[in-house]
Amino acid sequence: MSGPALLTIEDVVVELPTPRGNLRAVDHVDLSLGAGRTLGIVGESGCGKTMLSRAILQLLPKKAKLSGRVIFDGQDLVRLNAEALRRLRARGIAVVFQDPMTSLNPVLTIGTQLVETLQEHLELDAAAARRRSAELLAAVGIPAPEQRLSQYPHQLSGGMRQRVAIAIALSCEPKLLIADEPTTALDVTIQAQILDLLAREQRRRHMAMILITHDLGVVAGRADEVAVMYAGRVVERAPTPALFKNMHMPYTAALLAAIPKIEAAPHTPLAAIPGRPPDQTRPLKGCSFAPRCRNVGDQCLRSKPALTTAETEGHCYACFHPLKISAGVSA
Amino acid sequence: MATLELDIAEDVVVSPARRSRKLGLLFWAAIGWLVFVLLVAILAPVLPLPSPTDMDMLERRGPISALHWLGTDALGRDEFARLIFGARISLTVGLFAPIIGLVIGGALGLLAGYFRGRFESFVVGSMDVLLAFPPLILALAVTAYLGQSILNLTCILGVLGIPAFMRVARASTLTLARREFVIAAQALGATHARIIIRELLPNVALPLLAFFLLGVAVTIVVEGALSFLGLGVPPPISSWGSMIGEGRESLEVAPMLAFIPAIAMFLTVLSFNLVGDTLRALTDPRQGAL
Fold it and tell me: Would you state the pLDDT for residue B165?
């Protein structure tokens, strides 16, 4: 981590009331992110990635309870009033969602959506906003941007729509972009393009990015640091090269092993992780991954492992029986 | 007032029709009829028509003639003129009452669907109370205390329409309010007002507009029924409903007097329903595909 942190998350807990009791979607998470850096958050469905991103945005469902501190640009978002929060968000944070079908307003043209956002944030007049919109569309790789402005979202392909969503997110020059599974709903061939686009725009604008995904492969080349989440907790956190060189948490290794490999023989069964994530309304006493873990021991069932620092700098993991594998064995 | 009516009708017709899809002959026939009725109603005072209230006691229930195109009624008044002036009343009430419902109900539904919580419970609760109140009793009570006038009639029918519009608006808002484009707008720092007006309203407007046209059709019929019962416009003003009511008295000798306004009402209501249904069908698949 270099420079002062743009975003610091301290001890964030998000609880959602459900008919079966409180569901702890995010469980004492600490993270920090410097300006211009990329943090990858990886985990399977329901591990709290999205809830964590909503907690950062302060856009949790109304009934959710949030505690902890989310410090963005020196201000604690949890304690800000609605109006100050709105201004801060307008200045600094944008978000790109998984499904470009639902992240664009279906009844407004691309142009209207972009132009209005621009006018709102940069106080441009209509003509300037329209020019700027076309530039933005061109910047995100949309051919014939002038004509696209008058089209509706349903007239564009999925990849195009995601590019438009990115253009809208970039329109207000955010300092932090939260990309919540930005490529999950897209064709594999488009995925790399969208990720490259995000990386390029990030470098150009010196923007910090949180890249949320369930695919370790997505963060491998693109994130500076990776946090692996399981059952609402961060179970391993490390600079990306260190993580891939030396992963300690059996869950991280299992996630990596679950990615299909191109060199594997056809019909090789995927190395799926057995079992299911724990019911988060009934927290386990021990490590939440214990029931599915290969290295499980007595201690794992009795108490929760704390996030401990490994020998490499900035590498933390929460495991009593960490793996000592080296790169090449599993990747 | 007259030009306002024209504007509304054009809005309704023009914007969805721009989406070049096959709308069918029936749709255009319905549009044609509505435009015709609207134009005739608006232009009624300048058209060379006999007075709709001048009685000619020597020519009661007269036949179709060059002077009286559709004959005369039981009091010798020109049936064609009464029909056209009646269209003014029927359409005014039929359009403005649903506008009251559309504006108030639509706004309440949007706010309730967006803000949820106690406000929503309050709105839904009050609408349930309004729905539970017998509409005819309300109409009787209001006309008894405030008198029979077109304004009162419009207000009664408008208020009675609010719950239905509220429900349509709230239902659409509920499905949209947690969509990601709304969250994205919030993340970009949009105010509640902006989100409601610029993000949600354009989405809710289409189903509301389609429902509005059906509301117009229903209101014309209800206005007819109330006038038929003597709760509608005060005589000698004619509306289609009161004309049917008056025609009932001479149903054996001159059935035409009841049937002509009934046919006019039937065609108009059918046209509004056809147009409304077509518009709804146009907006439905788009909502479903998203």
Answer: 92
Q: Is the pLDDT assigned to residue B5 strictly greater than 70?
A: no
Give the pTM.
Answer: 0.74
Confidence of residue B58 (pLDDT cuts 50, 70, 90): low
CA distance linking residue B198 with residue A256, whole number of Å: 43
Which pLDDT tens digit goes with each residue over A49-68? 888 888 888 888 878 888 88
Q: Please report residues of A whose CB lies closer than 8 A to that of B191.
A: 86
Chain B interface includes A24 (CB < 8 A)? no
Using a CB-CB cut-off of 8 Å, the residues of chain B touching A168 are: 184, 188
B203 touches chain A (CB under 8 A): yes
pLDDT at B66: 64
Q: Going by C-beta distance under 8 Å and a sequence separation of 6 or more, which residues neighbour residue B133?
A: none
User: Is residue B232 pLDDT above 80, yes or no?
Assistant: no
d(CA A170, CA A137): 10
Question: Are both A88 and A115 inside the same structural domain?
Answer: yes
* CATH superfamily of this structure's domain B27-40+79-283: MetI-like (1.10.3720.10)
Q: Where is the domain boundary, A226, A257, A277? A: A226
User: B191 in contact with A at a CB cutoff of 8 Å?
Assistant: yes
Choice between A100 and B15, residue whose per-residue pLDDT is larger: A100
Domain termination residue (choose one: A171, A195, A226): A226
Say yes or no for a CB contact (<8 Å) between B194 and A120: yes
Query: Which residues 124-143 on chain A approach chain B with CB closer than 8 angstroms?
Result: none
Confidence of residue B255 (pLDDT cuts 50, 70, 90): confident
Is the Cβ of B181 closer than 8 Å to some Cβ of chain A? yes
Domain of A191, CATH number, reads 3.40.50.300
Range of the domain at A113: 33-55+83-226
* A294 domain residue, yes or no: yes
Residues A284 and A163 in one domain: no
Cβ–Cβ gap A169/B194 under 8 Å: no
